[in-house]
């Protein structure tokens, strides 16, 4: 089920990513095509870095608050919760009771869900920024860039 969603997301983002660069190239003059391509890719990379940093911070803050709550609720498992917070693959290997495994799994799910919810404003900002684009019809023939 998860892999199916990843495939759908990959196909969707993969088809959109190059189309934006292509649209910018078409809108620019032939002489500016290389510069426009570079700027588009640079800004996409900077945007990705900023979004990943923000979403990682959101995920981390949610996880820490959930782990702190679990540590105060179950002080006898504080060391195990700390180890799981550093390495999530230990959830099933430490011999923890099922209620704690479920609580730790839920904490990770809440962190990822919070990051996806935080992604909504970035997506909305991106969608709103497209409304200012001027429609430029596609050229049927490409101009020579080297004379």
Shape designation: elongated
Global structural class: mainly alpha
Instruction: Give the strand tally.
Output: 0
Mean pLDDT: 85
List low-pLDDT spans: none
* Tally of individual helices: 4
Order of helices and strands: HHHH
Radius of gyration: 23 Å
In whole angstroms, how far apart are the ends?
54 Å
Oligomer class: single chain
Strand residue percentage: under 5%
- Summarize the main sheet: none
Helical content (DSSP H or I, runs of 4+):
over 70%
Describe the structure.
It is built from 4 helices and no strands. With 147 residues, the chain is mainly α. Helix 1 packs antiparallel against helix 2. The longest helix has 41 residues.
């Amino acid at each position: 089920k998860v892999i199916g969603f990843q495939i759908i997301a990959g196909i969707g983002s993969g088809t959109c990513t190059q189309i934006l660069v292509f649209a910018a190239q078409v809108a620019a003059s032939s002489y500016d095509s290389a510069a426009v391509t570079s700027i588009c890719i640079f800004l996409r990379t900077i945007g990705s870095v900023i979004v990943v940093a923000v979403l990682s911070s959101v995920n981390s803050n949610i996880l820490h608050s959930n782990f702190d709550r679990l540590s105060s609720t179950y002080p006898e498992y504080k060391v195990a919760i700390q180890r799981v917070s550093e390495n999530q693959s230990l959830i099933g290997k430490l011999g923890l009771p099922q209620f704690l495994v479920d609580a730790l799994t839920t904490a990770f799910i809440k962190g990822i869900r919070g990051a996806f919810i935080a992604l909504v404003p970035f997506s909305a900002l991106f969608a709103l920024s497209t409304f200012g684009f001027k429609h430029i019809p596609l050229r049927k023939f490409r101009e020579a860039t080297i004379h």
